[in-house]
Every structure is written in C-alpha cells, then in structure tokens.
Amino acid sequence: xxxxxxxxxxxxxxxxxxxxxxxxxxxxxxxxxxxxxxxxxxxxxxxxxxxxxxxxxxxxxxxxxxxxxxxxxxxxxxxxxxxxxxxxxxxxxxxxxxxxxxxxxxxxxxxxxxxxxxxxxxxxxxxxxxxxxxxxxxxxxxxxxxxxxxxxxxxxxxxxxxxxxxxxxxxxxxxxxxx
Length: 179
Prior knowledge:
Layout: E1 2-8, H1 12-15, H2 22-40, E2 44-50, H3 60-64, H4 81-86, E3 93-97, H5 103-111, E4 117-125, H6 127-141, E5 147-155, H7 159-171, E6 175-177
Helix pairs in contact: 5-6, 6-7
C-alpha cells in the first residue's frame, strides 16, 4: 500500500511562460519538497501535462482562452526544470491531456490501476481549472479514496479563483491541507 501524488500541469507556460504567474513561480519549492517527500517514502508519483496542438486557437478552449500555450514539443509544454532536477519525469507515468481533466487518468482509475493506493494527493496549477477538474475526477471514480489537495503547492489564475476552487473542493469532500 502506498500513497499517490498527482502533479498537475507544472509546465513552463503556466509558470514563467504565456500563462505564468508569480504565484505559480512561488509554489515551485513547495512542489519540489512534496515530490522529494513522496520519493523518500517510495510512494507513487504521476504527472499531468496540458497538451495542445498547433491548431489550439481553433478549438473551443482556444476561442475562450486565445493564448497559445503548452503546444506539444515546445519549451512551454515541458515540465519546469526545477521539477525535472528533482525527479526523472520521463520515468514517471505522464498523462498528456487535451482538456482540463485527464480522460486517460479517469480510464486508469476505472480500470483499477491505482486500487492499491491508500490516499491520493494533488498539487500543481491551475487550482481553479485543472487541479479541481482532476481532483473531482479522482473523487468521482474512487469515491471512497481519501483525496487531498495541498494548497501551499497550488496556484490559480487569480488568488481569489484559487481560494474559490479550494472551497469548492472542500464541499466535495476533498481535504485541503497546507503542509
């Protein structure tokens, strides 16, 4: 039995790139520390990566958020260097997702891939879009699984939307911690 850490979209475009924020930059040391803690305990760590194609601006998301970002293979799509220095991301399970929640992660949850874990924790960006979407997916497909989100390892589009997302997750029985 082990715990599972899901690192959500800690990619350059969300940190220092096209959609970067000072709040996202500020959480990097906390996320690295969290990853190191999980590694020390031999717990599982997986990643999600926002993944778009060159036609991003033609998609519904692109029309609603007309800022090209996380184009597969480009620098902005890569997980940030500080995290890649802490863990060999390429050796971890990475879910490339074309929308806010990971369809492939949901399928793996339904198939029982993570039935041996005792707790799932999420960290990353953006709290108010992709973190909440993936946390709710986990809770939907594993309703009896304890699910946590570490607020000190998350950043939202704005401080207010970050707080709103944390409150919404609390209402859905996702434990919000600040470690």
